[in-house]
Design brief:
The complex is a heterodimer of chains A (about 300) and B (about 260). In chain A, the strands form 4 sheets. Chain A has a 7-stranded parallel sheet, with helices on both faces. A 5-stranded parallel sheet of chain A has the order 15-14-16-17-18. Chain A is elongated. Chain A has 2 domains: about 160 residues, Rossmann fold (3-Layer(aba) Sandwich), CATH 3.40.50; about 120 residues, TPP-binding domain (Rossmann fold, 3-Layer(aba) Sandwich), CATH 3.40.50.1220. Chain A has about 300 residues and is an alpha/beta fold. Helices cover about 25% and strands about 30% of the residues of chain A. In chain A, helix 3 crosses helix 4 and helix 5 runs parallel beside helix 8. Chain B is an alpha/beta fold. Chain B has a single domain, classed as Rossmann fold, CATH 3.40.50. In chain B, the strands form 2 sheets. Chain B has a 9-stranded mixed sheet, with helices on both faces. A two-stranded antiparallel ribbon of chain B has the order 2-3. In chain B, strand 7 and strand 8 form a beta hairpin. Classes of the chains: A alpha/beta (about 300), B alpha/beta (about 260). Chains A and B meet through helix 4, strand 7, strand 9, strand 10 and strand 13 of A and helix 4, strand 7, strand 8, strand 9 and strand 12 of B. Strand 13 of chain A pairs antiparallel with strand 9 of chain B, so a sheet runs across the interface.
Chain lengths: ~300, ~260
């Protein structure tokens, strides 16, 4: 089995998520090569095969062009699996590449059993196993599902790939979210609000508990999207990544994007009416209760 | 602007899911159903663009069982002009490639300037359909959009990346984009608009008329994942729970000392 692993390059650097792709390939005993639209300087100093396209020439985000470049690398390497991270680059590129190659695609793979990928359904509450019907398959891997690999020492064997495709969109650059006034990454205690708090007025009781515990309050994405809490307090893949001594998740079901932002917390308490909510997987203590009933009582007892 | 917006009916994600008798999908009985959250942003964006560009027309398409018409009525009440229901009792077994092929087959000769989909569905979560439709129709496709505005005769879009970074992209029409959560504020249908929606055109097409491809993958088993660990589960009266929790925090953490 051969895997072509698709690296990601943003603002001049290769993202470290690529090591999880190598970990996946090693785990299934497959031979692997790296594809990257990037620069030679960004390629890891390791004994690996690399298909490299020049980001200066092809752009960091030019999906149509990258699709052709990956197809060119596939033509040369002849992999069985083309593997991406399930990220803003990976889920964007994978369907385009799958279509170009006439390949099946399975998204957000969390396991690989006897040649069949396993992927989550309904926010991770269920999983499914998938039989593939095409010669090649495109996979995107859930962040953190496969352990990062250490690459063999040595120097890379780099082959340049080229494509002759005109961009169809104009990439105008990156926009950084304004610097947050609240640096959650420094807080020792974070109490976060999820959709389960019910209504915007209830943010106050979350903030109150955070204050009693000497920490800050945060929020999950739905609460931020609904504008109950400012974006600078969002915990998760698209917000802040935190690792406090205590994380209290209030009415947060535990979507993978949220878990990725808080699972390194030292101690996690979840308050949720649903005993089976995915947040329970990472919680040291799961309090089965309605947030609006439990939190005020807890705050009061903390004096 | 002639716009096609594609929506899907999904179960409420707070539900307790059980594996169906066929062993390959969840049991659809006793679930509350709603419009896929990502698609609500798509409908809202389509209607906003229609309000900005005179003479626009918005078609909403949904592939599903008869029950899926519930969310089509909501989309029509939010301001879509017409509905196309692709009747498919096997919708749950369709993989993204088949779903995309159905949409592309419908859209191919209709002259849409813009196709909008959610970035993914809440149940399957594959994030493939929109971009596959773009490939099939040979349109530029932009995924994960959190900002959209008219820009000359094209669109200025913001793509959400990780860690609070966005990519700014400009595209000429015709094009396709997929909506990320938070793109806009989906409106609630008003009662007069719900009444008006009842008079709007809602046609049904049999899936067999549009599905010309075979699936490239199939689910062989659906299962509830084994709990990896999970910690202590506390249940009971709130006051007792609070006392127990404070005891645990004093013992296991340093935050209360």
């Amino acid at each position: 089995m051969k895997c072509l692993l698709i690296g990601e390059y943003r603002q001049g650097e290769m993202l470290s998520s690529v090591y999880e792709l190598f970990g996946f390939a090693a785990g299934i005993g497959a031979e692997a090569a790296l594809f990257l639209v990037g620069s030679e300087a960004a390629v890891p100093a390791a004994d690996i095969g690399v298909y490299l396209a020049d980001a200066e020439r092809y752009g960091e985000y030019q999906p149509q062009v990258h699709q052709r470049l990956i197809a060119a690398a596939v033509e040369r390497y002849q992999p069985d699996l083309i593997v991406f991270s399930h990220s803003s680059y990976g889920w964007d590129m994978a369907p385009r590449v799958a279509y170009r190659l006439g390949a099946a695609q399975v998204s957000e793979v969390v396991d690989f059993v006897d040649g069949e990928p396993v992927a989550p359904v309904c926010n991770g509450k269920l999983r499914r196993r998938i039989a593939l019907k095409t010669a090649r398959t495109v996979l995107t891997l859930q962040a953190g599902a496969f352990s990062a690999a250490t690459l063999p020492a040595g120097s890379p064997n780099i082959e340049a790939v080229e494509a002759d495709e005109q961009p169809r969109i104009i990439f105008e650059g990156y926009e950084q979210a304004p610097a947050a006034d609240v640096d959650l990454s420094k807080a020792e205690v974070i109490v976060s609000a999820g959709r389960g708090i019910g209504k915007p007025d209830n943010v106050a009781m979350i903030a109150e508990l955070a204050k009693k515990l000497g920490g800050e309050y945060g929020a999950s994405r739905p609460v931020v999207d609904a504008e109950w809490v400012a974006h600078e307090r969002q915990v998760g893949t698209t917000g802040q990544t935190v690792s406090p001594k205590l994380y209290v998740a209030c009415g947060i079901s535990g979507a993978i994007q949220h878990l990725a932002g808080m699972k390194k917390s030292e101690f996690v308490v979840a308050v949720n009416t649903d005993k089976d909510a995915p947040i329970g997987e990472v919680a040291d203590v799961l309090v089965v209760a309605d947030v609006t009933q439990f939190i005020p009582v807890l705050s009061e007892k903390l004096g | 602007m002639n716009i096609l917006v594609c929506i899907k009916q999904v179960p409420d994600m707070e539900a307790k899911f059980a594996v169906a008798a066929n062993g390959v999908w969840y049991d659809p009985t006793d679930l509350a159903w709603r419009m896929n959250e990502y698609d609500e942003y798509g409908v809202e964006q389509a209607v906003q663009l229609k309000e900005q560009v005179a003479g626009s027309d918005v078609t909403v398409l949904c592939i599903g069982t008869d029950k899926a018409k519930e969310i089509m009525k909501k989309a029509l009440a939010m301001g879509c002009d017409r509905g196309v229901h692709v009747a498919d009792d096997e919708v749950f077994s369709r993989e993204p490639y088949e779903i995309a092929a159905i949409i592309a087959e419908f859209a191919r000769d209709k002259g849409f300037d813009l196709v909008i989909t959610g970035m993914q569905s809440q149940d399957r979560g594959s994030a493939q359909v929109g971009l596959l439709v773009a490939e099939m129709l040979d349109l530029p496709g932009i995924s994960t959009v959190v900002g959209c505005s008219l820009d000359g005769d094209g669109l200025a879009l913001s793509r959400e990346l990780e860690g609070g970074v966005r990519a700014k992209v400009r595209v000429n029409l015709p094009a396709l984009f997929t909506c990320q959560l938070g793109l806009n504020k989906p409106r609630y249908p008003t009662l007069p608009n719900i009444m008006k929606a009842k008079k709007k055109e809602l046609i049904t097409i049999a899936v067999a008329d549009l599905l010309k491809v075979a699936g490239r993958q199939a689910t062989t088993a659906l299962f509830v994942p084994q709990k990896k660990g999970g910690g202590l589960v506390l249940e009971g009266d709130p006051a007792e729970l609070a006392d127990k929790l404070i005891g645990i925090l004093k013992e296991k953490t340093t935050v209360l000392s």
